[in-house]
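Q: I'm writing a short explainer about Acyl-CoA dehydrogenase for a general audience and would like to include a description of its predicted shape. Could you first generate the structure from this sequence?
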Amino acid sequence: MRRTVFNEDHEAFRETIRAFIEAEVVPVYDEWFAAGQAPREFYYKLGDLGVFGINVPEEFGGAGLDTHKFEAVLYEETSRAGVNFGGSGVHVLLALPYIKMLAGDEQKKRYLPKFVTGEEMWALAMTEPGTGSDVAGMKTTAKLSEDGTHYVLNGAKTFITGGVHADRVIVCARTSAPREDDRRFGISLFAVDTKSEGYSVGRKLDKLGLRTSDTAELAFVDVKVPVEDLLGEENKGFYYLGANLPSERWGIAFGAYAQAKAAIRFAQQYVTERTVFGKPVAHFQNTKFELAACQAEVDAAEAVADRALEALDAGELTAAEAASAKLFCTEVAHRVIDKCLQLHGGYGYMNEYPIARLYADNRVNRIYGGTSEVMKSIIAKSMGL
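A: Of course. Here's the predicted structure. Afterward I'll give you a sentence or two in plain language.
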């Protein structure tokens, strides 16, 4: 089936990214994996390549485009190579939409030029110990000082992707108590400078997968945040978060599809080269049938992911549609990657093989950005159930 979602510009970008990955990432990826993170200097290379500025207005050093299709190419090419670009995905997919949507002109002048170059890497801090998906239940507070010049931030966050290397973090905190009829009221967003006194990075979390993506615990003890770093209006943070959830969930869906597609590539290559009982594993009927079934599932996931991408770029992707795409693509990826690992036999369990790393990396897709169970609840609600 011929895809129509990408044009010549996207394919030219694909060639550039593929060459970059082969030259700059593949040779050192084992070192990143062992260290548990990509090096900070790598993000400057992505900045030089123009990856961070695609959707940033030209006046701030970007390309001035308004599309997620180049991000989609990145998902496909990193998965194809069995690598991960660390916390850079959060920088672009999660943080940038909030800056573009909420920052004033003065804030954009301060934030975006350094965002584009990689001089300031951004992360998003929502999740807290003990609250999980219940964002409205957060305990972190930001209280306005008596002279009105700054907020005083206290609390803790966990599972923050990109949290180790981040130079600024969009922190969600309570500026007011929840209302009796609206517990979501009272949350605000702040662009917090990680060099601020009282800001600290706790453990770099030891994860099952996504080993090269730094994930951290953060703590705030009387951190002074200038009022100039409030994003948007006070107490409306929960609604801002909701506005960007469809794009986040599309990203997880598309990334999962790309991983499943890559898994078939790894498996097909392996079974063609591996010989058992005197002939390649690819010659056995079971191998052919398993890979054929996987290909059919990935074809379907590609169609769903592409449709969601087109809707997102058109500004029409609804919360329910994003939830449906995430649920479907992540469940397909789970099944496909498991079957492709099985076809590797014992070698599929070895981290030196990309399928093993892919298996571990993929597992979180059904958890973060809202669990599969939460996705089902959203879909059911849209059905009037």
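A: For your explainer, you could say: The first strand starts at residue 122 and ends at 125.
Q: Perfect, that's easy to follow.
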